[in-house]
Design goal:
The chain is mostly beta strands. It has five domains: 30 residues; 121 residues, Jelly Rolls (Sandwich), CATH 2.60.120; 123 residues, Jelly Rolls (Sandwich); 76 residues, SH3 type barrels (Roll), CATH 2.30.30.40; 61 residues, SH3 Domains (SH3 type barrels, Roll). It is built from one helix and 33 strands. A hairpin with an 8-residue loop joins strand 22 and strand 23. The longest helix has 27 residues.
Amino acid sequence: MSKKQLFTGLILGVILVLLLASSATLYADSGWDAKYWNNKTLSGDPILHRTEPELNHDWGHDRPHPTVNKDDFSARWKRTINVSAGTYRFTATMDDGMRVWVDGVLIIDSWWDSQVHSMSADVYLTNGDHEVKVKYYEAGGEAVAKLQWTAVSGGTGTVLNWRGEYYNNMTLSGSPVMVRDDQQINFDWGINAPKGGAVPADQFSVRWTRSLNLNAGRYRFTTKTDDGVRLWVNNVLIIDRWFDQEESPHTAEINLPGGNVPVKMEYYENGGGAVARLSWTQVAASTPPNTGGAHTAVVAVHRLNVRQGPGTSYGVITTVVRDTAVTLTQRNTDASWVRAILPDGTQGWMSARYLRSQSGSFTSLPIGSAPVTPPPANNGAATATVIRAYHLNVRSGPGTTHSIVTVINRGQVVTLTGEKNANATWVKIILPNGVQGWVNTYYLG
């Protein structure tokens, strides 16, 4: 081989390496790393691994690939996106279950058998790369899995304290009309608006988010609001009082590992006075030593209901079988009910009577929210029962275009307000905890 041929060969080799490197980068950054399993729990080795240009699937009654089941399959998508600093709205559309993480934080959680529906979450992202991960399962019938995101207008640049996103509706729907840096959540607006001309005095909502740098230990968080409030600490919902109320305090405790802890508070104002306050204090220097970090237990009966709240008056989310291991996060005042995280990530309340603790007494758990006091009985009002769906969406208006307020389960008894749409296919209901919304009459009996 001549020197010229050798030199030419070396040049061609370098070009080939550069092309392969460029192709590999494009392969990683321009699409989703997708894996599929022929089960609903993403267990074992995937049956299919491929790259997909977008996550926008409506398979109907077909299958994603000849090797994948039509029903009872699951999938996981992962990719890195590069964005400019700002607030982004992620919208997931699914049939059946889907979860979405951004930078390791769970922002959308709809992990149950369902009809086609969408859920959204707004996330503030810094300038640069961010990892997005999606998990999905299909139980039966049609199969839909979609995710999209878009920049939300109204950003204010760097937020040093609480990022306050204000909406001119009570459901945190659409784009915020105002985004600002709130030094504290300590507001008593009375009958006035948070900001004239942008946010109304009544029927508005706010979402505050930030990370708090805290020492390890048990913390007591207290909200005081008029009207509704929800509070997440370290991605755990610890206070849920999403109903009209006079100025009322609500308290919950949680064990924290220390370091940067994400906190999110959502609030809505219906009418009259408007108050929104949040405070916290450390009540124990460290996590109780007998928890061993995570407090775990095992189901000791053949089948155990997992409920939305600490008591049998709350709806059933799902059931678990004997010997299922669960992680416990909270308890009610007398430790007769505990809040648990199931192996698939579902969270709910279980009767402590039917659990066998593996980490000491249930009383070592922090106290969670007390049961919601039901509204006064509506004497003489008609009621109905959910009979044609395992999980039924309750919406803010009469139709599927309206946002989802909450989800109720088969067997749930609801009170009818008497309001209905023109052709009586949707009716307005009141739940035992005071939440109101609209449901399709087909699913009631």
